[in-house]
C-alpha cells in the first residue's frame, strides 16, 4: 500500500463541459475517481444557495439530511428552509460513460442552456452556467483582508 492509498481524494478544480441533447452531463473522470465506491456511482443533485446546482455524493447528502433533520418541524422558518433544499433533490446514478441526466427544472433554475462549468468544492460539486459564474465572479465583493481573515479562521 502506497501513501497515496491513505489519502482521501476530494473534488477540486474546474472543468468546462457541455450538455448533450438529452440534457446529460459527463462527470469529469477525476471526480468519478474521487467518488468513494460506497456511493455506488450515485450523486444527489439539488439547487444551490447561489444560482447554481450542487451534486452531493450520497454519503455527503446523508450528512446534509442529518443536519437538516435537527431543525424544528414546528418552526415555519425551519420548515421552509428544509423544504427549499430537499424538494428539488434528485438521486442520479451516472451511466457507463459517466453521464448524469439533469432534470429540466434544475437546469432552468441555474440558467444552464448547454455549456456548464463543473467546479470541485472539496466534498461536493457545483454546476454553473458560465455567464452566471462570470457575473458572480465580477460582483464578488471579497477583499484581500477578507481572504486573510478567512484563512486565519482555518489556520491556513
Main sheet: strand order: 1-7-8-4-3-5
How would a textbook summarize the main sheet? 6 strands, antiparallel
Tally the beta strands.
8
Average pLDDT rating: 89
Decide which structural class fits the backbone: alpha+beta
CATH architectural grouping: 3-Layer(aba) Sandwich
> Percent of residues in helical segments?
25-40%
Question: Quaternary arrangement of the chains shown?
Answer: single chain
CATH topology-level fold name: Chemotaxis protein chec
Q: What top-tier CATH class fits best? A: Alpha Beta
What does this structure look like?
The chain has about 160 residues and is of the alpha+beta class. The chain has one domain: Transcriptional regulator MraZ domain (Chemotaxis protein chec, 3-Layer(aba) Sandwich), CATH 3.40.1550.20. It has six helices and eight strands, in the order E-E-H-E-E-H-H-E-E-H-E-E-H-H. It has helices at about 30-35, 60-70, 75-85, 105-110, 130-140, 145-155; strands spanning about 15-20, 25, 40-45, 55, 90-95, 100, 115-120, 125-130. Strands 1-7-8-4-3-5 form a six-stranded antiparallel sheet. Strands 2-6 form a two-stranded antiparallel sheet. A hairpin with a 5-residue loop joins strand 3 and strand 4. The model is unreliable at about 1-5 (pLDDT under 50).
Helix/strand layout:
Elements: E1 14-18, E2 24-26, H1 29-34, E3 42-47, E4 53-57, H2 58-69, H3 76-86, E5 90-93, E6 99-101, H4 104-109, E7 115-120, E8 125-128, H5 130-139, H6 144-153
Brief sketch in words of this structure:
The protein contains six helices and eight strands. It has helices spanning 29-34, 58-69, 76-86, 104-109, 130-139, 144-153; strands spanning 14-18, 24-26, 42-47, 53-57, 90-93, 99-101, 115-120, 125-128. The strands form two sheets. It has a six-stranded antiparallel β-sheet. Strands 2-6 form a two-stranded antiparallel ribbon.
Amino acid at each position: 500500500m502506497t501513501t497515496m492509498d491513505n489519502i482521501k481524494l476530494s473534488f477540486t478544480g474546474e472543468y468546462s463541459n457541455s450538455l448533450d441533447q438529452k440534457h446529460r452531463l459527463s462527470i469529469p473522470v477525476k471526480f468519478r475517481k474521487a467518488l468513494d465506491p460506497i456511493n455506488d456511482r450515485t450523486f444527489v443533485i439539488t439547487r444551490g444557495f447561489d444560482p447554481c446546482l450542487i451534486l452531493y455524493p450520497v454519503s455527503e447528502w446523508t450528512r446534509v439530511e442529518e443536519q437538516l433533520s435537527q431543525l424544528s418541524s414546528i418552526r415555519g422558518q425551519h420548515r421552509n428552509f428544509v423544504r427549499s433544499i430537499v424538494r428539488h433533490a434528485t438521486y442520479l446514478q451516472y451511466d457507463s460513460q459517466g453521464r448524469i441526466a439533469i432534470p429540466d427544472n434544475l437546469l432552468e433554475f441555474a440558467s444552464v442552456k448547454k455549456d456548464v462549468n463543473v467546479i470541485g468544492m472539496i466534498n461536493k460539486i457545483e454546476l454553473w452556467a458560465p455567464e452566471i459564474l462570470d457575473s458572480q465572479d465580477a460582483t464578488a465583493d471579497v477583499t484581500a483582508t477578507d481572504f486573510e481573515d478567512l484563512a486565519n479562521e482555518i489556520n491556513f
